[in-house]
Each structure stands twice: as structure tokens, then as C-alpha cells.
Amino acid sequence: MCIKAIAMNPDAKPVVHFRSADISNGEVVVVDHLDLTIRPGEFVYLTGKVGSGKTSIIRTLTGENPPLNGEAFVGDFDLTNLKKKQIPYLRRSLGIVFQDFQLLMDRTVEDNLRFALEATGWKDKGAIRERIDRVLEAVGLQHKAYKMPHQLSGGEQQRAAIARALLNQPALILADEPTGNLDEDTARDIMRLLFDINRRGTAILMVTHNQVLLRMFPARVMNLENGVCREVAASA
Predict the structure, then answer these.
(1) Dihedrals φ, ψ of 162, to 5°?
(2) Residue 54: CATH number of its domain
(3) Is residue 139 part of a domain?
């Protein structure tokens, strides 16, 4: 049985809005006139061959590569006129999940999360403790807080990374090939977790090549090809 993304409110203010935005890789335009709108609670896949521009779109969303023209917003942040001092605040409004987890290997799961909170301005120890407990429970790792990353399975490490992405209650999670280093069963578990998070109202933009997962977990699909990003029908 496949799991479907929730229906979103078409009148809600977008968490992402691009219109006729040219996306570069830092040197040349790789995506022409990108039109992309993601609303609260929406799940969107971003697909395409290696080098098609998926990573460049992610880097634009995080403020690393400014769009060259057109309109580009993440929430209230105007990416076409983003000031350097705004970038940390933009990134705090996002949750980011990587293929290779990017956990700090010299500290426990709890200390990884505490480090991320403190780095984004949290100071109250009680509030930090409460938030860590809440996100670990949300991803099913409440009994693994004191484990080191090397003591966790790959799926557990990715759950810890998803917990980190949830810390600041983002409206949008960017998941860049989050199942790429996982076996099939574990990948399905992570997808179920992401869809569960999505059902609670968090929008998710997920980069993937995995057509099996797209069929099992249908949602909107934006495909990149020859410098153009178009919405395509989900695989049956």
C-alpha cells in the first residue's frame, strides 16, 4: 500500500515561490526561468540526472547561490535581494537533511542536537533539554540520546539528522537524497517518517533518483531536464 502526501491549502502563503528565476551553479545558468511554488504541508520531489541543476536549486534556497533574475522567495526572504547578514536567519528557518547524515562523530546524539540549538541562538538550558526530548521522540530515538553516531545504524543516524532538521520548527525541510546511503527497507522507514512529519504540516522538498520510492510514496514531482524544470505526473 502506497502512502500519499496530504492535501495542502491552495490559498496558504507559499513557503517557496520562484517565478522566471534563472538558477546558476555559481558560474553559469543551469536552470532557466524556474517556476516553483511550494505551500505549507506540501511534499515535492525534485528529480533529474546528475548535473541537471538539483543541487544548484538547493543552494539557491539556502542563500548560497543567488538567483540571477526573476522572483525567488523562501517565506519572507527575498533571495534576489538577500543581504549577507540575513543568510543565517534564512537557514535557521529551514531544516536540511543530507545523504551522508553530517553528524558530529565526536559527540553523542544529544550533544549533536544541543550544538545545533546553541549555534542558532538557544541559551535556556531547560528549553534546550525540552526541545531535544521532543524531536528525539518525534523520530523514535528517545532511547538513543546518549549513543555516539558510530553506535547507531545508518537508519538511526538519518533519524538523528532529521531530528536536527526539526529543532527550529522549520516550515520547510530540504532533504537531499536522504535515502541514498540506506538499504531498501531502511529507506522505506525513513520515507514513512518524512511523510509523518509532512502530515503534521511541514513542507518537504526532497531530491531523489529513486523511482521505486516515488511510486510507493506519491507526491508532486518536479523534473529537471535540459535546463528546464517541469512538473510531471507521478509514476503509477
Answers:
(1) -70, -40
(2) 3.40.50.300
(3) yes
